[in-house]
Amino acid sequence: MNLTLRIWRQSGPEDKGRMVTYQVDDVSPDMSFLEMLDVLNERLILDGDEPIAFDHDCREGICGMCGLMINGDAHGPQRGTTACQLHMRQFSDGDTIDIEPWRARAFPVIKDLVVNRNAFDKIIAAGGYITAPTGSAPEAHSVPVAKANADAAFESAACIGCGACVAACPNGSGMLFTAAKVTQLSLMPQGQPERYTRVIGMVDAHDEAGFGGCTNAGECTVVCPKGIPLTSIGRLNRDYLAATSKRGDTPGT
Amino acid sequence: MAVTGILLVLFLIAHMLGNLKIFTGAMSFNHYAEWLREIGAPLLPSAGFLWIQRVGLLVAVLLHIGAATVLALRARAARPVRYAHRKKVRGSYAARTMRWGGVIILLFVIYHILDLTTGTLNPIGDPARPYANVVADFAPARWYVTLFYTLAVVALGFHLRHGVFSALRSLGQQTPRGEQRARAVALVFAVALCAGYLLVPFAVLTGLVS
């Protein structure tokens, strides 16, 4: 396959950046999308040019490092797939492919296609944890968890924090990520002590980081490589409503 | 957004049911309009209830627009550099047109008040004869009024299609089956309200009401 790539090049955070066109020939349909970029980078290095910077780590679709806006689709055209697991057979010979970084104020570009997702860490730090005694792991069966709750919590826990939800959202909102991280804990008995301070803290951290507000447009769940459902945002909203009517400093509320 | 939206929706239902009284004849319709002014009498002065309702609706509309403006400004600020290649929102046409649809509805409401409440833009404009005002408004010669009215009502339908679902979600709808139900309720409600509001102008246009 011969492809024309239009790739966002930006030498650093201060650079304005622009789309640059590259020609890549003899691409195998069995290559992954990132391997195709590797081939292009090898050629750029041989030519003495600066290779294209992009994030990647496990290349197995489970680490959440890779993230590219491919032809306006977060992680490319295949649903439920990260960019590293996307194969070139999804494209045809002669295609022009536009590759851009995630676009959000909270995700500033570091270089080319690499963005800083530190804002997600700040949201986690604001409440994405439980208080548990350290030491040996307790007997798993000592705390009963309803099957439906365990399933729903696991569905949310599948979030790899790649940021595709923010990239696709017409409002630049990170609410699907926040909801996944809130609900995976609020559904479990271990998550109850901090349940209501968690949701307030994490939503506040989300807003402070410069993400937009959620309008339930539903774009996020379409592009999410882990299929986090939109209903998790409803669950977050319900916790938030309950939290705003409770006072943490009064016993029994 | 959700709470003010629900208040406005309750008014829309009452307003539509009132409109449909036009099919019971001029006497009945005019009497209904007269009754609206007398609700709460003698405790409230004439049109007292109407003014309470108007103030309530105005507050709800302003809060609704305020919240929408905050969301729109935050969305703009959240993505300072635009995508060079951007796909259309796949969620739904309704979700994509919430903001501009809302602006169209606002412009229509302003026109609608000048037309059928104050009578400024109505060919008859006599507050004592609401039935005649409506019939004159949607006369076939004034087809452009009916066209604008239809566009605004359809915009309202789309606004409700996403708005009703979104409001239920904001207030904590959280199960997958509930989501399907909420979307179905939003669709049926939007279509029913559209049909109810469009019945009157088209009945006048086709001569069913004259």
Structural commentary:
- The complex is a heterodimer of chains A (253) and B (210).
- Chain A has 253 residues and is an alpha+beta fold.
- Chain A folds into two domains: 3-111, Ubiquitin-like (UB roll) (Roll), CATH 3.10.20.30; 117-244, Orthogonal Bundle (Fumarate Reductase Iron-sulfur Protein, Chain B, domain 2), CATH 1.10.1060.10.
- In chain A, 33% of the residues lie in helices and 11% in strands.
- Chain A has a five-stranded mixed β-sheet with strand order 2-1-5-3-4.
- The relative contact order of chain A is 0.14.
- Chain B has one domain (2-205).
- Chain B is built from eight helices and no strands.
- In chain B, helix 1 (2-19) packs across helix 3 (48-78) and helix 7 runs antiparallel to helix 8.
- Chains A and B meet through helix 8 of A and helix 3, helix 7 and helix 8 of B.
Write the layout of secondary structure elements.
The complex is a heterodimer of chains A (253) and B (210).
Chain A: E1 3-9, E2 18-24, H1 33-46, E3 69-70, E4 73-74, E5 96-100, E6 109-111, E7 114-115, H2 118-125, H3 147-157, H4 164-168, H5 175-186, H6 195-208, H7 219-223, H8 231-244
Parallel strand pairs in A: 1-5
Antiparallel strand pairs in A: 1-2, 3-4, 3-5, 6-7
Helix pairs in contact in A: 2-6, 3-5, 5-6, 5-8, 6-8
Chain B: H1 2-19, H2 26-38, H3 48-78, H4 93-96, H5 98-117, H6 130-137, H7 143-170, H8 176-205
Q: Which shape of chain B, going by the Cα principal axes?
A: globular
Strand portion of chain A, in percent?
5-15%
Whole-angstrom Rg of chain A: 21 Å
Rough shape of chain A?
A: elongated
Please identify the top-level CATH class of the largest domain in chain A.
Answer: Mainly Alpha
Main beta sheet of chain B: strand number and arrangement? Answer: none
Work out the largest interface and the residue count of each chain: A-B, 39 and 35 residues
Instruction: Classify the secondary structure makeup of chain A into a structural class.
Output: alpha+beta
Describe the strand arrangement of the main beta sheet of chain A, using strand numbers: 2-1-5-3-4
User: Could you describe the largest sheet of chain A, including whether it forms a barrel?
Assistant: 5 strands, mixed
